[in-house]
């Protein structure tokens, strides 16, 4: 099967599909905890004001979560993959969390954790640390009050108000001491959100590391784990090696996840990844191989997904959501390529052509005929 794709130099290049779709293993057992941060499916008909009023196709959004659960993944709900802070507001997130918690109860063994942030508080409106604490408390109360587990997301408002590490410690100490259950922390780098530059009160990694480790040590009984998203494997390993017993490292490194999940023979990372939304069938098969002790089989499956992930998460990294939703459309999980906030426009047609090629090479086009047909419609709209 062939398709003509655009190249960055303006040429048109014929591409012949070479990938064989990887078959996932339903009921597979993993030796790692694997959270997939899931996207939301927009409703293009209901979306009359796409830049400021999100409209969601709830049926398709929930169906995608069932897809992930069937493949053995836990779900990290209402995180940045669902466009929190980039078109998807807190009222919409509340409805997503409410529906997802209810849906999880219908699936034996389903696991769900939901993002608690401060995004209903505009950073400019936050004047004090108490304002930030109050915003966190509101979202924690909603999630935990509904029977959910909270992921304490990084806060733009806290980054704007905090004067140094002690201010971060005050906010995190307060929230962790009063949380009703165990919490997952999230260290999100400024490549994902420029407003988070200097998080933990310092631009120096070692200083920030000391701050977050001290917080975790004080509340080790309340912290399930921490997800670190700095796209730097060495920094993740530094943090991983300093975590107290019983606290899990969740890789959020969409560039280096295979090696971090496999581990170094002493320690390994578990996963809480946006890319798992897009590569779920292959990640499922690879994690099953790892659980069987077949490291070579794991590597063979995971390795081709890395160039794809690096393309989807290339700078400006915060627009990675477009590639995630593009792949869901190519693979038939939704009938359109429309995103909340119109974010499909954040990447160009050559980027999508590259994602198409790399998806094929990683065995991630479940129905190549459908994928080609849909890619051709996108190319036609772009004048290719």
What does this protein look like?
It is a single chain. Helix 5 packs parallel to helix 6 (205-218), helix 11 (305-312) runs antiparallel to helix 13 and helix 13 packs antiparallel against helix 14 (368-381). The protein is α/β, with parallel strands linked by helices and 384 residues long. The protein has an eight-stranded parallel beta barrel, surrounded by five helices. The chain has a two-stranded antiparallel ribbon with strand order 1-2. It has 14 helices and ten strands. The protein starts with a strand and ends with a helix. The mean pLDDT is 97. It is 43% helix and 12% strand.
Largest sheet: 8 strands, parallel, barrel
- Give helix % range: 40-55%
Distance between the termini: 18 Å
What is Rg? 20 Å
Uncertain stretches of 5 or more adjacent residues: none
Number of strands: 10
Instruction: Characterize the overall form.
Output: globular
Number of contiguous helices: 14
Structural class: alpha/beta
Mean residue pLDDT: 97
Please indicate the percent range of residues in DSSP E strands (runs of 2 or more).
5-15%
Strand order of the largest sheet: 3-4-5-6-7-8-9-10
Order of helices and strands: EEEHEHEHEHHEHEHEHEHHHHHH
């Amino acid at each position: 099967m062939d398709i003509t794709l655009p190249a960055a130099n303006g040429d048109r290049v014929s591409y012949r599909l070479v990938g064989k779709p990887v078959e996932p293993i339903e009921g597979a057992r993993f030796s790692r905890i694997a959270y997939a941060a899931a996207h939301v499916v927009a409703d293009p008909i209901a979306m009359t004001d796409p830049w400021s009023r999100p409209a969601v196709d709830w049926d398709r959004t929930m169906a995608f979560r069932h897809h992930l659960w069937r493949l053995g993944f836990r779900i990290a709900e209402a995180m940045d993959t669902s466009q929190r802070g980039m078109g998807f507001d807190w009222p919409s997130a509340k409805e997503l969390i409410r529906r997802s918690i209810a849906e999880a109860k219908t699936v034996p063994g389903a696991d769900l954790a939901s993002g608690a942030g401060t995004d209903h508080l505009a950073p400019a409106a936050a004047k004090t640390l108490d304002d930030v604490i109050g915003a966190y408390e509101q979202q924690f109360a909603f999630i935990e009050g509904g029977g959910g587990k909270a992921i304490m997301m990084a806060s733009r408002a806290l980054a704007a108000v905090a004067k140094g590490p002690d201010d971060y410690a005050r906010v995190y100490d307060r929230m962790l001491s009063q949380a009703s259950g165990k919490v997952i922390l999230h260290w999100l780098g400024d490549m994902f959100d420029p407003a988070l530059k200097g998080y933990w009160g310092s631009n120096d990694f070692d200083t920030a590391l000391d701050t977050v480790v001290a917080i975790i040590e004080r509340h080790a009984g309340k912290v399930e784990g921490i997800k670190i998203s700095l796209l730097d494997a060495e920094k993740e390993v530094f943090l991983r090696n300093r975590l107290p017993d019983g606290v899990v490292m969740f890789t959020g490194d969409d560039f280096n996840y295979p090696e971090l999940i496999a581990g170094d023979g002493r320690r390994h990372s578990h996963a809480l990844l946006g890319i798992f939304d897009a590569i779920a069938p292959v990640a499922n098969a690879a994690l099953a191989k790892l659980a069987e002790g077949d490291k070579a089989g794991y590597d063979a499956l995971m390795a081709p997904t890395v160039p794809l992930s690096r393309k989807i998460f290339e700078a400006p990294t915060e627009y990675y959501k477009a590639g995630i939703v593009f792949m869901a459309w190519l693979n038939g999980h939704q009938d359109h390529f429309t995103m909340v906030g119109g974010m499909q426009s954040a990447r160009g047609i050559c980027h999508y052509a590259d994602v198409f090629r790399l998806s094929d090479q990683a065995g991630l086009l479940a129905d190549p005929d459908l994928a080609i047909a849909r890619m051709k419609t996108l190319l036609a709209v772009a004048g290719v």
